Amino acid sequence: MPVVAAQNRLSRIIRVLARTKVQELNRLKRNSSDLERADFLWHYLLQSFATMGRSSGRQGLIENQNNYRRITYEVLELLTDIARATEIYDVCRIARIRMPDRKARFILGCFEHIRDLGGPAAAKAALLSCVGRESKIRFLKEFPGIGPKYARNIMMDVYHKDFRDSIAIDVRIKSVSALLGVSFPSYSAHENFYLEVARRSGVNGWELDRILYNYRTEVEQALSY
Questions:
Q1: Would you say 197 and 11 are in contact if contact means Cβ atoms under 8 Å apart?
Q2: Per the UniProt record, which residue ranges are transmembrane (predicted)?
Q3: What's the CA gap between 34 and 57, in Å, rounded?
Q4: Are 70 and 107 in contact (CB under 8 A)?
Q5: Is the CB of residue 153 less than 8 Å from the CB of residue 50?
Q6: pTM for this entry
Q7: Cα 84 to chain center, whole Å?
Q8: pLDDT (tens digit, 9 = 90+) per residue, 42-78?
Q9: Are 198 and 205 in contact (CB under 8 A)?
Q10: Where are the domains of the chain?
Q11: Maximum distance among all alpha carbons in the chain?
């Protein structure tokens, strides 16, 4: 399908969903208060690895407090290097997240990077001192395991003002693109396609992203007619 036709088709569906999902979108925007957490960056890095590849991983690593309490930054900081690594690997396996050993390596690397930055509060301050979206994305991509999607999604999860015209492209959004019959040579081209859909739908990029993430089934059903 030609790009413009695909954008028009999807925007008609999004306009309807945006009107019917206002309350849920507003509820998600209230997550902005999490930005006040001193451990904001550490917490959202953990959440990123918990959900990477399978969103249900959040239950085992974040919502299960027995597991989560074992890998707070403050707890890990008290351990020796060997004990810290053992604890992270153990928790990732017990939490049954996808690719536990690979993600344990990422978490351990992120811990070391945050430690080098001076701890969670200092790392958060360094992130927020970055001017503009692109600077913050570059900063976040310095953390092991964080690519273009999660460098956006971490800030989108707290509805940060610099990321309200961003798209965290994942397998769900790629499946919508496949249904539309469009493909892209780069992340930025893919993101720009959806930002134009957002503009035509009368929503911002964040709102479109959350609609596609939370209501993909409804979008795909509408596209199948």
A1: yes
A2: none
A3: 20
A4: no
A5: no
A6: 0.93
A7: 25
A8: 999 999 999 998 888 999 999 999 999 999 999 999 9
A9: yes
A10: 3-30+167-224, 33-163
A11: 58
SS3 45: helix
The string of DSSP letters for 65-127 reads HHHHGGG-HHHHHTS-HHHHHHHHHHHHHHTT-SSHHHHHHHHHHHHHHHHHHTSHHHHHHHH
Structure tokens given for 74 = 């403050």
SS3 of residue 222 by DSSP: helix
Of 30, 43, 36, 108, residue with least CA distance to 76: 108
Q: Which tokens belong to 214?
A: 């939370």
In this structure, which CATH number among 1.10.340.30, 3.90.226.10, 3.90.1300.10, 1.10.110.30 belongs to the domain 33-163? 1.10.340.30
Between CA 35 and CA 64 the distance in angstroms is 21
Taking the C-alpha atoms of residue 14 and residue 147, their distance in angstroms, rounded to an integer, is: 27
